[in-house]
Amino acid sequence: xxxxxxxxxxxxxxxIAECKESKARxxxxxxxxxxxxxxxxxxxxxxxxxxxxxxxxxxxxxxxxLLGNTYHLGTNPGPELLKKAGGLHKFMGWDRALLTDSxxxxxxxxxxxxxxxxxxxxxxSPYDGSSCLLSPENSIQxxxxxxxxxxxxxxxxxxxxxxxxxxxxxxxxxxxxxDRCINAHERDDEQNIFPIVxxxxxxxxxxxxxxxxxxxxxxxxxVGGISGGEAKYDFWRIVKLCSDLLPKEKPRYCMGVGFxxxxxxxxxxxxxxxxxxxxxxxxxxxxxxxxTGQINLKHKKFSTDLKPIQEGCECSTCRTYTRAYIHSIVxxxxxxxxxxxxxxxxxxxxxxxxxxxxxxxxxxxxxxxQFMKTMFEDREVPVWIKDALSAVNIKIA
Length: 397
Hints:
Shape: globular
Helix content: 40-55%
Largest sheet: 5 strands, parallel
């Protein structure tokens, strides 16, 4: 509470340190349920549960914020039950921060089941075949019931490979839907709407979209519609363009980014927040994240390997189990998914912590150079990475 007795703002954002060469910065983002240190990676718990992990395991890793999905949570368990439970935090036993996607991404992932109109998105449920409408108002109502600290506007999402008039149509509709979301929002003192920059790979459309979004009184921004199969050359240029145009004093969230090298590059380009299903999804396929990329523990060569997944890793899996043990149960016993998910999520969170520390110590360029040298120890660093980093004054040999 303030001295006057009023509530604290639902979001405050304080930059702690900035890299003197690149656009990287580390900040404290204070939300109703937790102070989140940025840059931050947010593991994805689509239906209010991170596949293969329990909330107390995430807390032990000092995970500060998770992501859930409005479309799926709105379908099951549904907003009425979530209201009765006191919101998703209580329902899933998580007392730190939450961010909810609006459901817009399902326009791409469930496109065969969706029809997009100005009023909203008509879905055929993948669960029982029933029809439902997800409108901007409905999306916000569900997110108000969920109670996440950060909620996303419903945007009109098209594949990053889409070209032509559909891209401009989606960008314009996203702006119109933002105003409808803001008008429908009933918990602005407790939850923060982030608008989403759309416009595909068209730089003029992206500029136009940012110019409109920053006119609205919002507390943070997201960059959407990328990391969906486009060329990396296009990916980093759109990220940099949006980061350059968005307000410095507010957090910037790049949606759907989760590969380690991409995270490092995007931090250098000025992004603060990321999410992706990658760490837990790749764990279900038997892969562990390591400083050189990832290893497939189903491979026979690990059957007698008594090293941890990553030497020097302090996660509970690496402190206790060997590659050989995990190889013997991977994709066979369900506990293997837990062990690999613990490691992979820890790896991502530790990477972001190391990035934050390097920025505070004014050693971020050196951190990036060493990271890339290790990640690509036996091959050339991709040209797109060199170009992206060079654009913010970090040279990679």
